[in-house]
Amino acid sequence: MSTTAPRINALPAPHRERLMSLATDVSFQPGERLFDERRPADRFWVVRTGAVNLDARLPGSLRPAVIEMLGHGELVGLSWLFPPYEWELGAEAMSLVRAYEFDAASVRALCAAEPAFGLALTLWVGQILAHRLQSTRVRLLDLYAPHGSGVL
What we know:
This protein has one domain (8-138): Jelly Rolls. It contains 3 helices and 8 strands; from the N terminus they run H-E-E-E-E-E-E-E-E-H-H. The protein has helices spanning 13-20, 104-113, 115-144; strands spanning 24-28, 33-35, 43-49, 52-56, 65-70, 75-76, 90-93, 97-103. The strands form 2 sheets. A 4-stranded antiparallel sheet has the order 1-8-3-6. A 4-stranded antiparallel sheet has the order 2-7-4-5. Helix 2 crosses helix 3 (115-144). The longest helix is centred in the last third of the chain and has 30 residues, at 115-144. Pfam families: cNMP_binding (PF00027). InterPro entries: cNMP-bd_dom, cNMP-bd_dom_sf, RmlC-like_jellyroll.
């Protein structure tokens, strides 16, 4: 893709600072799964260093298909914001990853208590969601569309 998803710095500074007040430092080893499809989405991360692959299980495949690689400043996990709070994709550390981790329930409570923060956060996540949907579409076309079909 030629465009990248909005990073944490796209969140207006006062709201970014408010969100970061809830952050915990964590790390993941290469090959460690952050989450799997259909599991409870009770937290999310912003990558500080390293790379995380988002992936999807596809019929007939032994390994999940990589949809997108995420790096510095990018949000890992979207399903925590929307009921039923279950992961739609999976994620795996591709290198040593250092990240900020956020408890989803605490962030949702802050969104409810501070509507301006909630709106800013929801708009940021919505932009990322639109980007990821397009990335997923393009990746699945790469995997399944007949070559030379003209399908975009």
